[in-house]
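Pentatricopeptide repeat-containing protein
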Amino acid sequence: MVFDTTPRPDAYSYGVMLRCLVDAGRHADAVALHQDMRQRRPCPEAQDDFVLSLALKACVRSAEYWYGRRLHCDAVKAGGGDGFVMNSLVDMYAKAGNLECARKMFERIPDRNVVSWTSMLSGCVQNGFAADGLLLFNEMRRECVQLSEYTMASVLAACAALSSLHQGRWIHGLVIKHGLIYNSFISAALLDMYVKCGEVEDARHVFDELSYVDIVLWTTMIVGYTQNGNPLDALHLFLDKKFASIVPNSVTMATVLSASAQLRDLSLGRSIHGIAVKLGVVDYDVVVNALVDMYAKCQAVSEANRIFGRILNKDVVTWNSMIAGYAENNMGDDALMLFKQMRLQGVSPDSTSVVNALSASVCLGDLLIGKSFHSYAVKRAFLSNVYVNTALLNLYSKCADLPSARRVFDEMNDRNSVTWCAMIGGYGMQGDSAGSIDLFNEMLKDGVHPNDVAFTSILSTCSHTGMVTAGKKYFDSMAQHFNITPSMKHYACMVDVLARAGNLEQALEFIDNMPMQADFSVWGAFLHGCRLHSRLQFGEEAIKRMMVLHPERPDLYVLISNLYTSYGMWENSLAIRKWMQEKGLVKLPGCSSIGHENG
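Tokens:
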């Protein structure tokens, strides 16, 4: 108010006012004030180094880069500016995404300090050139520049972007050496680095050693658990009484909703929905999208659709959440109709939209529609995306077009473990055991770490081809060489390997030695082997144990009836069928789906 009532403010008054606005975070007002200064107090006052550095800072924070370039011209006219101005110009060009100009300014600085180096380094990382950022950091250390907390945070962000765990751990050691481990800014960067490198346990060690935990650090750890497939750990941390004083924000709530979706726990998801309403964050875009995703994945499609319908400004993420929900619940037609509606409303589909549409095509078993989306992906230049390629590969495999699947696989430049597993599974589905095993061995040679799905596919292949020794070798290697704990699916596959080959005694011993109680799938695989090899005694033992586990399942009694039928014990089989009718147990008929255009 004093400044506005000053008839002819001098350069000093402008500088003080400019500093006040920048410190108060009113950066757009600071830019406007400097524009006024250039008109009312022309050179050299408006080109003072102190004033220019403040004005450039305001330009960066308000993203008014056009004015920043004008200020660069002023600096050149005034003789180039001092170190503060040149550092501000490096930062401005880097934030604007013009790394070429940022680099030129950086090279012109005669006495580069830690601010100069850090501005250039963070610019490289923020613009997707993390590897260049690490090279710059190494060059900085060779110049013996004193490192700051911002330097450390930027280089940790580079390690996270490159999933460079070894380098990240080395930086962690450097942080400890320089006594910066208790800096919350660096702690958040360390957590983020370990999380993005998939090392959740290391991230938790860093988290537990923190003397003070704020909303950012707490949420980062919860996000880390959720993104790395540990939803229970995420929810335990969210509910930990130690952090009861921290009020969750929209990102926290969206993350725990995602954890509920991973667990397919509708009751828990509804409770978290209630908390989001209570906290007043339920209308944030990130929370609304998470709600749609959670309800869809928990098979509450009508609730997901109701929330989706209430959203006025739907972005591509919102549409993708609903399309994915339909596809996951085998509602392929609805998913494709929504994809069409999205385009009609002017929202441009992204690579995730195409992945969801391809999943819907798989649900329908419609190869022709899937090929249309393949063409669309080519047209939109999405084929460089590993997830789109994997979805295409999955489409062709499940629609029995193995040559096309292999062609997609061979043309991929970037393959992850999911891609390899999809191709291995494709060979397995088509009964090509040699192709599955050869590809699995090729994956290992390429240094790709197989996941649990890969072992499910390869064990299934071994069971169908009678490769008992190979099956045992692959099963044992899961825990011994790849640190994968076998799940119930893997145990069921291994029982199937033994039972199909007629090794029923070994299969029963294997079941008895399992670390968890065998479920229906395990005993079903064993019973199937009993039928194949006419071993009624073992079959009846399997039936007794299955009836204890699931006395209400109609398909169990159908298996029993079929077992008696295969031995010519018609009266026993008929008695089971009559008993099912009396109890009202009806086995749902199986079904398959394939498009009529598939030929």
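The first helix runs from residue 11 to 23.
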